[in-house]
Amino acid sequence: MNLADTDTQTATSPTTALPVVAVPGVEAWHVESNVVPMIALSFTFEGGAAQDPEGKAGCAQMLARLLDEGAGDLTSDAFQERLAARAIELSFHAGPDALGGSLKMLLKHADEAIDLLALALAKPRLDQDAIERVRAQVIAGLRYQQNDPGVMASRRFFREAFAGHAYARPSSGTIESVAAITRDDLVAMHARLIGRGRIKVAAVGAIGAESLAEALTRAFGSLAEAGELLAVPRTEIAELGRRIVVDLDVPQSVIRFGMKGIPWRDPDFIPAYVLNHVLGGGAFTSRLFQEVREKRGLAYSVGTSLVSHRSAAMIWGYTATKNERVGEALSVIGDEIGRLITEGPSDEELQKAKDYLTGSYALGFDTSTKIAHQLVQIAFEDLGMDYISRRNAMVEAVSQADIRRAAARTFADGQMLVVAAGRPVGL
Question: Which of 218, 244, 303, 386 is the most exposed place for a label (fewest CB within 10 A)?
Answer without folding.
Answer: 386
